[in-house]
Each structure stands twice: as C-alpha cells, then as structure tokens.
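Question: what's this shape?

___
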Amino acid sequence: MACFYSSLYLVMMYSTYLVSFGYEEVFISTCTTVSAIVMLIAKPLWARLADKGKCRLEAVIMVLLMAAGFIIFFIFRTEKIVAMLYAALVTVSCMVLMDLVDSWVIKLSKETGAIDYGKVRSFGSIAYAVTGLLFGFATTRFGLDIAPYVMVLILLGIGIVSQTVPDPTVEEQVQRSFKEKLSLLADRRFLIFTIACSLSNATFNFTDAYIPVLVLSRGGNTTYIGINDFVMSFIEFLMLKQFTRIADKAGTDRIITFGMIGFFIKATLAALAPTPALTIVACLSQAISFCMLVPARMRFMQEEVDKDNVSMAISITAVAGSLANICISNPISQKLIPAVGLPRTMLIFGCIALVAAAVYYLGNVRGSKKESRN
C-alpha cells in the first residue's frame, strides 16, 4: 500500500508536468478524456482477471506498463500525442492498480476478518505525504527530470512487495459469468451508490487535477504543491486510522453522504482561496471529503457485495465514473475554463458533488428508512 501510493503521487502530478512543459490548461481536460475512454475498456478486463485471483500477476503487468509509459513521456514530452499516451497508459494503469490494491485488501479482509481497510489505507497516505514533500523540494532544486528515476525505483519496490502478498482464494464453483456479475446493477442500493459516486468522482477528479494548477497560477511552485500534498496526506493518515470507529457510530450511508458534501466544501474553499498558502489551508477539508468518502465506499463494498464480485463491483463504479468524466466533467471543463476561468469552474464542480450527496441521501438514506417503516 505504501509503495503504491508513493507511485500514485508521481502519476497524479501529470497536470503539473503538462503545465511545466508548456501545455495549456484546457489540454489537461483532453488528456483526462483520453484516460476516461481507455478506462472504459481497461476496467472490466482488469475485473475479470482480478476476480480469478490473479492479483500478483496483474500487479506486475501494471507496474511494467506504468514504467514504460512514464519513461516514454519524459523522453518525448513536447509531443502532444505522447502526452495523451501518458494519460492512456500511465494514469489508467495506475488507476487499475489502485482498484486492484483496494479489492485485494477487501477480499483478504473477507477471508481473514483481520484487516482494517482504514488503517491499511492510512499507511498509503503517509507514504503519499512523505513522497509529496520530498519530491516537491527535490524537483524545485533539480527539476522534473528526476521523476522517471524516482518512479522506476518505486515501481521496482511495488513489483517486489506485491509478490510477497498471497492471492485471494477463488472457488471454481462460485465463479459467475460477466453478464451475471453485471446484474449487480439490478440492486437498487448499488445502482444509486454507482450513480452518486460517478457524480462525486467528477468533482474529485477535477479538484485533484486542477488544485496544483491553481497553486501554480497563484504564484506557487512544486515546493508548494509538495507541501500541499504532504498536509492533505498527513490528515488522511490521522483520519483513516479513526475511520472504522467513526463509521461504526455514524453508519456507512451517512458517512458517504457527508463525504460528498465534503468535496463540495473542498472545491469551494480551494476556488475562493487567493494565495498558494490559503489554497493549502483550504485543502485541510480533505479530512471531511476524501478521508470520509473513499474508505466509506470500500466499506459499502464489504457490506453489500459478495467477495467474488468485489472486483467487478469496483470496476462498474469506475466505468460509470469514466462515463461521467466523458459526458459531464470534460465537456464542462473544456467549455468553462476558457470562458469563466479555473476558480469559477471549480465552484461549479463543487456543486456537482452536492447533487451527488442529494442523490445518495434521498435514495439510500431516506429511501432505506421508508422501506424499513413499510
């Protein structure tokens, strides 16, 4: 988990790389669209392999793809087609690997009952924080050209460590066809969960991609970005260790709703912050957004989905999120950023998270109460 989130930091710096290499802000949306389209194909294929228990094999494949794409991007970084290849190959491989790690943890947790997702995920956050701080200082001093060397070392660590973790067990007699697994969408609670998560992902992905751009546009540099990511990740580390206790008291549905509202607050505060320092302060709202919603989504999977369908369930929500990016997020950002500017566009994306919270609350919180009374 720690090795993966160190690599994730370097991958998610892609908007900073693009701006630093002279690309326009709108081109970031183009790359995000390419990533989302490829994700539509990659995620179901990943789920099929992961549900067969081939987690270690898939980890190695994703590491090799990430390494190849990252190195090619830095060698030919002035070519737009290579930047889009980075989006298609590196970011998709990284997102697939992230889902793989999450489903791996959930499956082993269901098998042993001894794994607390929040606590395991907190180690990823502290690794992300330390990587962000050190990488920010290092790139300010030595430039972004050190990134491929750092990435290869981290990916080597992922490849080695992943082979020490056991694959989840799979019983042949309970394997289901792809069509049968898609029947998850016939479950009302899961369908509402997928729709709401897709909408909130539009806000989540937009803020993740463009908060570094806001920092740079307000006079900051990669050191500021590193400090910002360190602060957010350190808060994640503290909050995720307490997540299980909080969720046991409040309930998964309420935490999901609260986390989506948290993303509205985060986007709003980041959009209104006038300086790089205050943008970092605004991102303290990570405690009530990411730290609530992401582990709550995994808890929902643990509670509502069979172990043999976990990878497919995560894949379905991811594909729905990619469709939301293609149909909602990217067209809106490409039109609005040149017209009204990045801060106002971020305010609009914050409102999308608020709509997601309303959908989930009305469908799965209030709706469940009505069903229980009937």
